[in-house]
Amino acid sequence: MAEVIAKATDVEVIYGDKPALDKINMSVKKGDIYALIGKNGAGKTTLLRLFTGQNAPDYGSIELFGKKGTHGLNEARKRTGAIIETPAFYPFFSAERNLEYYRIQRGIDDPSIVETVLKETGLYEAKDKKFKNFSLGMKQRLGIALSLMHDPEFLILDEPINGLDPAGIVEMRKLMLRLNKENGLTIIISSHILSELANMATCYGFIDHGQILQEMSAEELEAKEKSYVKVRTSNGEKAAEYLSKELQLDASYNADDDTIYIYFENNAVYPTEKISRFLFEKGYDLYSLEIAKTTLEDFFIELLGGTTIE
Ligand SMILES: Nc1ncnc2c1ncn2[C@@H]1O[C@H](COP(=O)(O)OP(=O)(O)OP(=O)(O)O)[C@@H](O)[C@H]1O
């Protein structure tokens, strides 16, 4: 069993009379890239702030590196880096000078750490560029460089991808994977858009209204992706009935979009020719037939009971 790096047990955080976190149980294991997914206001920041020490639970307990209690958690937090709010950088200082400023302020002796973290975050070439001329993606990566300066083992990142353009998202994904694989960092990263964290997360925690609805591994989530064939035809309702009965397919008609949905096991060979030939022979006009896959967002929406993500 992998070591548990961060754990919340029956945690509640209450603002006024409203719980922001409601009996949360979750854990991050060593080597994970844990994606914390929830729409705005779900409780992501409140949960992450418990691990950084910016919030304390009203009920329940948290652990870091197996340590509990104020003293234990303070010790464990030395092994943790975090970006919850964008750190303040001087706009007219270069990237290097900004990091050098923080190195001295934080009492880190080794001056070579600045070069190391600039290289780790892919910013070394831009080290002399002023912060004000950085793109949003570069600014986020400089924040991560800062959080790496004391060589943490666990990184906590609150919505670092929010607002990035597609190129920035790809850069961030590469950086996360590199830090995880090459530097052995365990990472928890939050987002309100599931697909942003796909292809990098090793496990997922879905949070809504202050509750973890489900935790699952990337493999388990992948297995939730269903393949299906979408067919539009004349007299769709009747055609769906025929397809189910005579071809023994899992076909259902949806009147809202006048479409037949036929579901298959993943990796199945789709009998698309058989379907189109059957419909043709039975006298239906085939308007369209396409193979599709449920997306991760579809799964998330279903988990939330059909509400949208934003
Ligand atoms: N300091 C506070 N005082 C009162 N209520 C708060 C406070 N901080 C957060 N909340 C409330 O707690 C709930 C959870 O907020 P939180 O910021 O943790 O959500 P989130 O998932 O991080 O959302 P976002 O992506 O919008 O930051 C929300 O209803 C929010 O309004």
TrEMBL record:
InterPro entries the record matches: AAA+_ATPase, ABC_transporter-like_ATP-bd, ABC_transporter-like_CS, P-loop_NTPase
Nucleotide-binding in keyword set: yes
Top-level taxon of the source organism: Bacteria
One term of GO molecular function: ATP hydrolysis activity
UniProt keyword list: ATP-binding, Nucleotide-binding, Transport
Domain ABC transporter: 6-234
Keyword field contains ATP-binding: yes
Pfam families referenced in this protein's UniProt entry, alphabetically: ABC_tran
Protein family per UniProt: Belongs to the ABC transporter superfamily.
Listed name of the protein: ABC transporter ATP-binding protein
Originating species: Coprococcus hominis (ex Liu et al. 2022)
